[in-house]
Amino acid sequence: MNSVERLLEEHRQMERQLEELEMSMSEDEEPLNVSHITNVFRKLHNLWNEHEKKEEDFFIRLKNEGASLPFEKVLFEHQELRGHKKVLNDAINSGSDIRIMVALDTDGRMLINKLRKHIEDEEESILNNSLNINQIKNLSR
Question: What's the rounded mean pLDDT across residues 68-93?
Fold first, then answer.
């Protein structure tokens, strides 16, 4: 599996966690299953942490090879997403169900929507890039 395939697979894994998080947050159960939501968020958090550095390195390599990519936008969005992730992580680490539920209702929903859009934009940038597939494959090794 080359770098592009790995990044795309990691995006699919994160999307599965986003779907699970979103479903758990929208369940009609009262109260929310905070323990389950916490576990799902931690899985997403760990996937994101592992993925982000690899992805930034990959985009740097593409840019250095002459790819026309919105690299600054990607970095800005990563920083913005880290902010939402931190709010959620801090709420979860507080142990307060109320603080967790408030953070989920605000930053959780924003994180889900922004991360989905971010993944979509990144994939479009990679797939629509002016680099030919052989150049990308060479970078992927």
Answer: 90
